[in-house]
Design goal:
Layout lengths: L2 H17 L7 H16 L7 H20 L2 H19 L5 H22 L9 H4 L8 H24 L1 H9 L6 H18 L5 H9 L18 H31 L6 H29 L11 H32 L3 H26 L3 H19 L4 H12 L5 H7 L5 H6 L1 H4 L5 H21 L7 H12 L4
Length: 481
């Protein structure tokens, strides 16, 4: 049995031990450490790859977020990190964008390819080749193991359900070999096999290598919807001049609205922010796409193109101004109506878009390719996602609103921050709820508390995280009536 097969089997055992019937907790950082060490055992040269090391650190950061807060965001970001880590272990020079595509594609393609290659139809062996070393995960070996295992498990379940003595013996061993566990293990085998046996997708690897970060020069073969380069240059001038004038008016009116914000109601703020964010999403995306089209190639090398570059730079700067206006809109809306997950999401969108505009401006003046923009912004997006896991957003929302907007509806706490807000609601239920609905909400909170405590005590150590421990300790301090 070769090294990678040993790593697959040992990782599968740890996967089942750490995650079967468990939730997000300390199991995620432990499993990440195991996978990183396993990859290094398989290939110690990965320590010399800076890109791989950065992604490995990001996987540990996201798994730390899972340990601290047990959040879905941390678990999702950690899955992204591990997918990248798996592919970068094989394709060490791949860009992050193509690495993610290759990793996902590999999970889909690899099992099919391995199965086909192990059959006589797709891989006919000579008598001499058949005596050579066979893969542990060939079709023959898989069937040799799975068929007896299925028969054994079938009779195991029959004897367990029909024989009380045998059932008690298995129960004392805490051996949970159910159909759910079997399905969980098979899925785990798929995950671990795909993680350690990534396939190189040649078409994607070649595409990644063929797209350089720098534009090399004027290309006579470049196609254009404007038939000629002169007409495209003229169209670009007209486009950027008209768009600059339009956005200048929009920004002026927005700034005027903000300075007169004290004259507007909360409902007006709500409508204004939502419409402003939606229009800015569309506007900025179009700004980037229009710029990418006109500066995709030859426009960068036309003699005397300073004017068109200046117009494009002005267009980008005006879009940056638009983003700052959106930032102020969202901040004013939060001051008026309180903090929510969606309003935090708006800040993230503004930040990522701001980075996208800056890199677009950099692309124009440094004559970079469109693929460069994709690659660099993929890194920014990934790093932003990674570090966002280090913040307890539920706690931040609760503390901000309690401190700054005490009149915010308790419904938001009940249904959007159900566990984080539970200690706060129990402490202040007689202040938050009117007498008419007091009995109803008292029962509801008690039910939520009972449900949380039951789940908390039923959890095993693999699912332990700091946030739930903190909530449990706060609940214990609340005096019972």
């Amino acid at each position: 049995m070769n090294k990678k097969n040993i790593l697959i089997i040992s990782s599968l055992i740890m996967y089942c031990f750490l995650f079967y019937k468990q939730t997000i907790g300390i199991n995620i950082p432990l499993f990440n450490l195991l996978l990183i060490i396993s990859l290094l055992v398989a290939d110690l040269s990965l320590l010399k790859n800076k890109k791989w090391l950065v992604v490995a650190c990001c996987s540990l950061i996201t798994s730390t977020g899972a340990l601290l807060y047990g959040s879905f965001l941390s678990a999702f970001a950690n899955i992204v990190s591990l997918l990248l880590l798996a592919n970068l272990s094989l394709e060490k020079e791949a860009s992050l964008f193509f690495s993610m595509i290759q990793s996902i594609t590999s999970y889909i393609v690899t099992p099919v390819l391995r199965l086909f290659r192990s059959t006589e139809v797709f891989n006919r062996k000579t008598e001499e080749e058949s005596n050579s070393k066979e893969s542990l995960f060939s079709a023959g070996n898989i069937l040799k193991i799975t068929v007896p295992a299925i028969v054994l498990l079938f009779f195991f379940q029959i004897y367990k359900s029909s024989n009380p003595v045998f059932y008690d013996f298995i129960d004392r061993l805490h051996l949970d070999i159910s159909w759910d566990f079997i399905q969980f293990s098979v899925f785990g085998l798929f995950l671990m096999y795909g993680f350690f046996r990534q396939s190189k997708i040649n078409a994607l690897a070649q595409a990644d290598q063929s797209f350089g970060n720098n534009l090399k020069g004027f290309s006579p073969s470049e196609t254009s919807v404007f038939i000629s380069g002169k007409k495209e240059y003229a169209a670009a001038q007209i486009t950027f001049i008209s768009l600059n004038l339009l956005l200048l008016v929009v920004n002026f009116l927005d700034v005027q609205f903000i300075f007169n914000s004290q004259n507007h109601s909360a409902s007006t703020y709500s409508q204004y922010v939502h419409q402003g964010i939606n229009s800015s999403v569309f506007s900025v995306l179009i700004a980037i796409l229009v710029t990418l089209y006109f500066f995709r190639g030859n426009m960068n090398f036309i003699t005397g193109n300073k004017r068109i570059r200046g117009l494009a730079a002005t267009w980008i700067i005006l879009n940056i101004v638009l983003l700052f206006i959106c930032f102020e809109k969202n901040t004013a809306y939060i001051r008026e109506c309180g903090l929510t997950h969606k309003r935090i999401g708006v800040y993230f969108y503004i930040f990522i878009t701001f980075i996208g505009l800056l890199t677009t401006l950099f692309k124009i003046y440094k004559i970079k390719s469109n693929m460069y923009l994709v690659r660099i912004n993929t890194w920014f997006l990934f790093i932003t996602l990674t570090f966002s896991c280090l913040f307890n957003w539920n706690r931040i929302i609760l503390e901000y609103n309690v401190r700054n907007k005490p009149e915010i509806s308790h419904y938001y706490y009940l249904y959007n921050l159900p566990e984080t807000s539970l200690p706060f609601l129990l402490k202040n239920q007689y202040l938050l709820f009117d007498s008419a609905s007091q009995t109803h909400y008292e029962k509801l909170l008690k039910r939520k508390e009972k449900k949380f405590l039951k789940r908390f005590h039923a959890k095993q150590w693999q699912s332990w995280n700091f946030e739930e421990e903190r909530i449990f300790r706060e609940l214990k301090k609340i005096p019972k009536h």
